[in-house]
Structures are given as C-alpha cells and as structure tokens.
Design brief:
This protein is mainly α. The chain has 2 domains: 212 residues, no CATH class; 185 residues, no CATH class. It contains 19 helices and 2 strands. Strand 1 and strand 2 form a beta hairpin. The longest helix has 30 residues. The relative contact order is 0.13.
Length: 423
C-alpha cells in the first residue's frame, strides 16, 4: 500500500507523487547535461571535478564545465533519492531540505567521489548503536559538508595518491561516525535558532581537523574559483523552476493559496516541518516564493549566477520546507545588506551575496524575537562569516552554518534575558 499524506484540507498526496516532484530538478539537470554538452566533455570535466581540492569556494561550472557540473549534481541527488526510496523514508521537510542542500552544494564542494566516506561512517555508527540507518540518514546527508576534507587529503595533500586517498577516506568515515551525536549536542547551544546545525557542528570538527593537519605540515587554505558564462541561463532556468513549484503547490492545495498566511505564525525554529504544519502543496508554494526572493536579492546586488550562488539559492529553497519563510528570512537578508553597505566588503561579490542568502540560517531569530532582532542577527552574521572561515580553511562547506551557530549562541541568551525582564 502506498504511503499517503493528508493535508489539513483533506487533500491526499501519495508517496510516488512526492518522489516525482523532488526528482524534477535532478532529472532535468541530467537531461540538460547531455543535450547541451558532449559526453566526452562531461566525463572529462567530471574527472577534473573529482580531482579538485573542493575547498571554499570551488565552482564546478568553472572547474569541469556546464555538462560535468550538472551531471555531478544529478548523479548525487538521484542516488540519494533512490536511497531514501529504498529505506522507505517519508518525504518530509527535513528530507526536502537535505535533498536541495545536496543539489546546491554539488555545484561547489560535493562530488560523486567525496561524499560516500561519511555515509560509511554513518552505517558504522548505526551498527554500533544497533539502530537502523534510516534513523540517521538525514544527518548523514547533511554531514557531507565535510567532503572537501576527503578530496583535499586524497588529491591535493602532497602525499602519495594511495596514502592520500586512505587518509581522506579515514577522516570522512570518522566524521560520519561522530557527527550524529555531536550535532544533537551542538543544537543546545543555540536552542534551534540556527537552521544549519550540522554546519555549526562541521565547522567545529573541521577547525580541529585543520589544526591537526597543520601540525603535520598539511595546510588547507581557502580559494576563489568562480564562473560567469552561465549566469543568464541559470537566471532564466531558476525563474521558471520556482514559478513551477508555486504552480504545482497551488494545484496540490486544491487550486488555492488558502492557508499560506499561517506560515508567518511559525518562528522556523528547529524542528519546524511545514509539510506537516501547512501541507505539501503550500510548502511547495513557500519554496517557490523563497526561491524568487533569493533571486531578487542576487539581482538587487547585481550578482552573477555561478555555482556557489546557485547552491545558496537551492539550499534556502530546501529549507523553506523546514524553517524559512519570507517573514523570518527577509529581515536577515536586510541585516546582511545593511552590513555590506556600511562595512568594508563589496556588496556585489559572491561571498557577500551568499552570506545574505545563507544567512537565513538565522531566520528563527527573526521569527521568535522580531524584525529588528533579525536585522541585527544578519548584520552580525556578515562580519562573522567573512572572517571565521580562516579557522577551518574552507574545509567546512557550511561556513554560514558555522558562523550562524556562533552568532545564535551569543544572541539567543541575550535576547532571552531581556525578554524575561520585559515579561
């Protein structure tokens, strides 16, 4: 019997339809890869992507080319969707967030090679704890933020190839083993007000790993490899895709947007699953709207749709099923924008633009404490994220999650203190 999801309005969505909807993007990417590029170019480019050090920011559109980058994205996402399907995992907000995060970061940091050691570590952890893998699958999917450590050690550490691969796989497996218990404890520091909690955990782990490797003469340094030539294409493609999400959501919600305003009443604090609270249809509507808002932020700042910016937008779209909505996200973006105007960084550069988009990891602060608190959080987040990457050398792909966790861990206790005094 098929699993069914029943919304508050009694609209029934079957499991296969869920999988069809989340597969639209990777299948489209796979088709476009072979339509617009030659197989020889795709697999040559994929080889270059796999060998790249993958440290932030490494744009696969620049490293491997259009077809190879899209093939890398589609392969990773479709394999993970298949894993979710075989494990009979329910499609909910956290799964959607994980799938879209994989889609986004497969443009700059995650490859068909470097993500699997973390999965193996997760399997070993599940066996040790005598639990089934499906219980930790979402955390392990997010744990692939450690992927650059695997690639850097395997191919760019200066070690003989076999030793580098062994060392990279070892660190990846170790990360997959310890990240589940560690992340559950890290969330207590910010009280669920940092949506990218695994990024916060990964930042601390990569800080330790980077420090350890430097002690043995292996340095991990940040880089900036970006593309420009595909910006117009992805602008048009993402625009069509996000409008499609809104249309599908509208149809699934009985050809209505009724009930969408309810989403503004939720803070977005972990764990806030909109598929359960407002239904799958309106969740898709929210995802499409948030995608358009993120695109507008890029447009306002005259940004280029390169790999990291595409990845940032897709990640926020995924988390728009699991925390983000316009009411709690726009204040964060406004705070980052204000900070970019007043501070030393150029607002048109990719690192600043993705700080504004990824900075919505702090959306629950605006949702819980108000617009002004959200603006302040975004303002502080920009300073933190532009400086904190040096401690892990760009080895943690979720650098904004790390910075967001630090900001939230500072701000939330302060806000709670004054909130209690006012009450």
């Amino acid at each position: 019997m098929q699993n069914l999801t029943v919304t508050n309005d009694g609209i029934t969505i079957n499991r296969n339809k869920h999988f069809f909807i989340i597969s639209i993007l990777p299948v489209t990417f796979l088709i476009m890869a072979f339509v617009f590029d030659k197989p020889a170019n795709i697999f040559t480019g994929l080889y270059e992507i796999i060998l790249a050090p993958d440290i932030l920011l490494t744009d696969y559109l620049a490293v491997g080319g259009f077809g190879a980058a899209l093939f890398n994205v589609s392969s990773i996402v479709l394999i993970n969707i298949f894993i979710i399907y075989k494990l009979n995992i329910e499609i909910n907000g956290s799964i959607i967030a994980a799938i879209f995060t994989l889609s986004g970061f497969a443009f700059f940091g995650k490859t068909i090679f470097n993500i699997w050691p973390m999965y193996l570590g997760g399997i070993l952890y599940a066996k040790y704890k005598k639990i089934t893998f499906d219980k930790i699958a979402v955390v392990i999917m997010f744990s692939t933020c450690l992927a650059p450590v695997v690639s850097k050690l395997a191919f760019s550490s200066g070690l003989p190839l076999y030793r580098g691969i062994m060392l990279g796989v070892f660190f990846g497996i170790t990360g997959g083993i310890i990240i589940t218990p560690l992340s559950s404890n890290m969330s207590k520091l910010h009280g669920g007000h940092n949506l990218y909690n695994v990024g916060f955990t990964g930042g601390l782990m990569c800080t330790l790993i980077c420090s350890l490797l430097k002690s043995f003469g292996i340095n991990i340094e940040q880089q900036l490899v970006l593309s420009r030539e595909y910006s117009t294409f992805f602008w048009n493609f993402l625009l069509i895709y996000f409008i499609l999400l809104i249309v599908i959501g509208y149809l699934l919600n009985n050809k209505s947007f009724k009930g969408y305003v309810k989403i503004f009443g939720y803070t977005g604090k972990l764990l806030t699953d909109y598929t359960q609270l407002i239904g799958p249809g309106l969740t898709l509507v929210n995802m499409g709207i948030m995608g358009l808002i993120c695109m507008s932020f890029v447009y306002i700042n005259t940004g280029v749709f390169n790999g990291p910016i595409i990845g940032a937008v897709l990640t926020v779209v995924g988390f728009s099923a699991f925390g983000n909505h316009p009411g709690n996200s726009i204040p964060i973006m406004a705070g980052v924008y204000l900070g970019a105007i007043l501070k030393v960084w150029d607002i048109q550069t990719t690192p600043v633009i993705i700080a504004g988009i990824f900075g919505t990891t702090l959306a629950p602060i605006a949702g819980r404490y108000g617009v002004y608190a959200g603006v302040l959080a975004g303002f502080l987040h920009l300073s933190m994220v532009m400086n904190v990457g040096v401690v892990h050398g760009g080895a943690n792909l979720y650098n904004n999650g790390f910075a967001g966790g630090l900001v939230a861990s500072i701000l939330v206790p302060v806000f709670e203190c004054f909130k209690r005094e006012e009450e």
